[in-house]
Amino acid sequence: MKERLNKDGLTEKEFLERYKPGDYERPSVTVDMLLFTVNNKPKTDYKKLAEKELQILLIKRKDHPYLGHWAIPGGFVDIDEGISTAVYRELKEETNIENVYMEQLCTWGDDVKRDPRMRVISVSHMALVPSDNLKPQAGDDADEVAWFSVKKNVTKSTETEIEYEVILTNEEKDITIGYKVIDKFVKNGVIKTIETEIEPLLWSKDRLAFDHYKIINLAIDRLRNKIEYTPIAFNLVPEKFTLTQLQQVYETILGIEFTPTNFRRKVSKYVIKDDEMLTGAGHRPASLFRYNGCI
Amino acid sequence: MKERLNKDGLTEKEFLERYKPGDYERPSVTVDMLLFTVNNKPKTDYKKLAEKELQILLIKRKDHPYLGHWAIPGGFVDIDEGISTAVYRELKEETNIENVYMEQLCTWGDDVKRDPRMRVISVSHMALVPSDNLKPQAGDDADEVAWFSVKKNVTKSTETEIEYEVILTNEEKDITIGYKVIDKFVKNGVIKTIETEIEPLLWSKDRLAFDHYKIINLAIDRLRNKIEYTPIAFNLVPEKFTLTQLQQVYETILGIEFTPTNFRRKVSKYVIKDDEMLTGAGHRPASLFRYNGCI
DNA sequence: GCAATAGTGTCTTTTAGACATTATGTG
DNA sequence: CACATAATGTCTAAAAGACACTATTGC
To answer: Quick one: residue B276, left, alpha or beta (phi over 0 = left, psi -120 to 50 = alpha)?
Structure first.
């Protein structure tokens, strides 16, 4: 096969040998990871089940910009490092967690001043872990690492817009970070599209760093959406789980309650019963189940 | 409120004034756009409806690397240009199309050698346009611009994997580009994940540039997925459309057929009847409908 | 025995699929 | 009038929701 030449009469090999990347300025590329888990709240009664809450791991920034603000963990992508590799490396460095489910969320780069230092494009990822065996530890870029409970509730709903409150809380440290989210249905020619506006709640003293409140808001929506039509929830329970535990994960994320019978029917296609039982809970023991791998 | 100082005793303002971006190498960031439409094939019978096909716009590269190969249009993101702005700019430059529905697909950057010239991270986007009033025109980076019909069909299906053929064809230019896709269900600890392998079909002489075959494959999946639970399909029909036209869009993308009654019931929540009718089609005229904007 | 959760059976409602039938234009 | 599509009515099957009821544990 005859090698094709370009307009300068060069073969591909010659072209690449002589290729000099332009000296135009390039953006920095970072990865962000939103690590979610569904955690048990402390038991209030020996025989009652623990309530669950959706939690996200945040770090406290120890340098400018946004010094002292809480932020999503992340870091720069090396020039010779794949994006996923960078995310797993950062996750390991900042939280000592490995082997988790992770998916790409969105790439943020419309606002060229989202980082006041320089142009930064950030590829955000969502990771899901079961709440057992979690020992996050602070890394280089952070004073502290902490789990924050995440709540997103509808506060107003009209024909043209829905208003939510997104509240992040860490009770131990007595921190509450709140944002108001308004999803507006905007006529965009023929098609209506959703435009999201986010601003801090008036009473909320604390703020998240950068545009991280937008990323968290998107992640919650994505999580709620994907749990409905994918088996993503199995990443939030241990290998062996009771159906009630699984139900609590769904209820916690979606903010609704299921009838046990109907929930069991719904997930029955995706689970297989294990031999073991979960005893010692102050009431009838529950069978343990495992995900059967169906999609 | 007392201004916080960092470890060097600097305020945020001082920090930013003195901040020098590191001289580490940065990746180039590009945007790719997969422009899809559902087009009418030529009529074979005056009274029969035109068959439809999913089409994607490709450009023929006129320089190395991949000189002469067909590729997804795209280009570099300027240092002071938002990502969406860059996509709309490129779309306008390369195809003269504006005001289209667009969404981010995925960011490609795991393979650091996906572009042989340098490290390139590419943010791919999917745009949808109705097939009327489309006059793409070649821009600077391309010899030619052409629509290719896109087909993705299951060729084999077992418990552990599904095999597809993705075929891109342009009849006018007599080009057929074919890939074999295998989605494997891989045990990943407890959870099974899907791993996708793609390779050119043996008989396929032509190839797509870079890793663009992977991007197109993902876009088809995303489109098929999202058409099921979002009103995305209305971006592929004109402002006023008949229900059969809408049905054909669904059938073309999903590769299945609907019963008219059931399809009408399914979309009835999302359309409003217009006063106008579509006449002159060789059979009973059809009412025109419009999208009502519900989500 | 009591409280709390585990687990099953079944009725109802809603949604989705199949298919027959009538309507209305063009050539 | 023939043909092809438009549009509606209705029967059936499947999925989702509601709820009553029994089972089993720790204390």
So the answer is: beta
Which residues of B are known to be catalytic? 144
- pLDDT, position B1: 52
pLDDT digits (tens, 9 = 90+) for B10-58: 999 999 999 988 788 999 999 999 999 999 999 888 889 999 999 999 9
Give, as ranges, the nucleotides of chain D with any atom within 7 Å of a protein CB. Answer: 3-10, 16-20, 23-27
Cα separations (Å) of B99 from A183, B127, B216? 21, 10, 22
Which chain B residues have a beta carbon less than 8 Å from that of A295? Answer: 185, 192, 194
Q: What is the mean pLDDT of chain B?
A: 92
Q: Tell me whether residues B4 and A67 touch, CB distance under 8 A.
A: yes
Task: Look at residue A1 in the predicted model and tell me its pLDDT.
Answer: 52
Q: B112 touching A, CB under 8 A?
A: yes
Who contacts B88 (Cβ-Cβ below 8 Å, separation ≥6)?
B98, B102
Query: B110 at the A interface (CB within 8 A)?
Result: yes
Q: How far is CA A242 from the centre of its chain?
A: 24
What does the H/E/C string look like for B238-267? CCCECHHHHHHHHHHHHCCCCCHHHHHHHH
Give the separation between CA B32 and CA B44, rounded to whole angstroms: 36
Q: What residues in A contact B12, CB-CB < 8 Å?
A: 64-65, 67
User: Which residues of chain B does A12 touch, with a Cβ-Cβ cutoff of 8 Å?
Assistant: 64-65, 67
pLDDT in tens, B55-114: 999 999 988 899 999 999 999 999 999 999 999 999 988 888 888 999 999 999 999 999
Residue of A nearest to B192 (CA): A293
Q: Which residue is nearest to nucleotide C19 (CA to C1')?
A: B259
Is the minimum CB–CB distance between A205 and chain B shorter than 8 Å? no
Q: Nearest 10 degrees: CA dihedral of A38, A59, A73, A240?
A: -20
This model's pTM is above 0.85:
yes
**Of B27, B41, B36, which is closest to residue B76 (Cα–Cα)?**
B27
**Could you read off the pLDDT of B181-201 as tens digits, one per residue?**
999 987 765 566 789 999 999
Q: Give the pLDDT mean for A67-76.
A: 94
